[in-house]
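[job 4471] stage=fold_predict status=RUNNING
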Amino acid sequence: MSDAKFELALIDYVIVVVYFIGILAHGLYVSRKNKDSGSEGYFLAGRSLPWYLIGFSLFASNMSGSSFVGLMGGTYANGVVIFNYEWTAAFVLILFAIFILPSYLRARVSTVPEFLERRYDVRSRRTFSAFTILAIMFIDTAGALYAGGLVIANVTGYLNLWTAVAVLALVAGIYTIMGGLAAVVVTDTVQAILLICGAAILFWLGLNEIGGWDQLFTGIPEEKQHLILPANDDFLPWPGLWGVVLLGFYYWTINQFVVQRTLGAGSLKEGQVGAIFAGFLKIPNIFLMILPGLIALKLYPQLETPDLAFPTLAFDLMPIGVRGLIMAALIAAIMSSLDSALNSASTLVTLDFVKPLKPDLSEERLVVIGRITTGICMVIGAIYAPSIAGFESLFGYFQSSLSYVVPPIVVVYVLGLFIPWLNGNGAFWTMIVGLAVGVPLFIFKEITGTWEAIGLPAIHYTIMSSIMMLAAIAMHLAISAWTRRPTDEDIDTLVWSSSEAREIFTTLERPFYADRTLWCGLLVLGMTGMIVWFW
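[job 4471] inference complete, writing structure tokens
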């Protein structure tokens, strides 16, 4: 196979330009339509989102830096074991829909950190909100910009990494600033459909190029063909699977970047069905995002970096014209994560810090502050994004950076939903100590390599996250017990309701095809089938 030719014809550029114009026009339209809807209309789409917009938006927001570029690159380097990050996400979305989302919507919160204040105290809210804002800028926004900039810089002769990042940041920033969440979710839905179509075309062309399905695993190393790997594997040892689930809990249940769509649901059922629908959309990623990485490995075994697997496939196999579609699909994926991240950051700053400090600010002023914050986060993320090139791979950057800092936060949220007597002292100090230990540990072990250089035992970051989880559980329980006080009566409305869950599981909903229990069961069967197939 000859080297990939990163070339776009005039028609390809026309498709991309038309797409850019379309999403900007939509942002302007929504801005004018919702100009009198206030801050709730801007940040939460007036709490009126239907299940299908929620599901597509959840899927599209996730499918960016960690998908087209990250997942294909990760598969190219490590094999189908990457799919563990996808099926566990579907599993976590079921738990989120049934056990966690009802508490959020009962509390009528606008941000996930706001729930922490209602459940614990204001210290916990602001600690987690500040962490989330930083994570959005330096992980979500910067990662998505780097993924898009890397591909665009390699397929055009006009832009380098820095300028490609700047263009993406500018366009995403403009329509998110103008339209808020209402613009984001509708645009995400269009982008999700475009993304699925583009990835399906790429998979089909790739299979034809290698001679069909029967040839897909021929010549692929045995260790790259399985989901479950030995305990001493360098990439994802089987004991580290629980660490993957922990990351999923952070990403899908307490990350404002993702959860904001469900907070804007028109009802509890709309939010739950939307989350389950997003879980179904994750399962086909084995064909759309994972197996194309193996195809790239067969066709181009000597790529300079695994993260070039997607652009090399797309621009070598796609005919002129269809390349523009794939380019638009990539931009769709990048934009979905960018708009979600930027809108979430502005929501957190405005509603968790500005509004509590200045409660008399008008709705119009809050929206203006949210738009200014979006622009600031866009600039910071764009400046930092090119530095991600210093990491071994984009996928590794995402997963390892989160593994050291999110376990204590997940513990605080999840235990708080099920154990009423846990209090703000335990929550606050568990998060503070967790961050104070996790960030230096990440630098010490994953960036500088000092950990192993001084002879400490090699511990995979997914296993390290489980160790930190156990330590956080002990700390939260101990501090809360030591400073225990009478439980607030309002806590009962914020913790998990067994009667509510029992009603969902024991009541047949009409019509039957709208039954949440039925769809959860079908999703579990789909996950199980994929696990058995690629075991």
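[job 4471] summary: Residues 1-5, 36-46 have pLDDT under 50 and may be disordered.
[job 4471] exit 0
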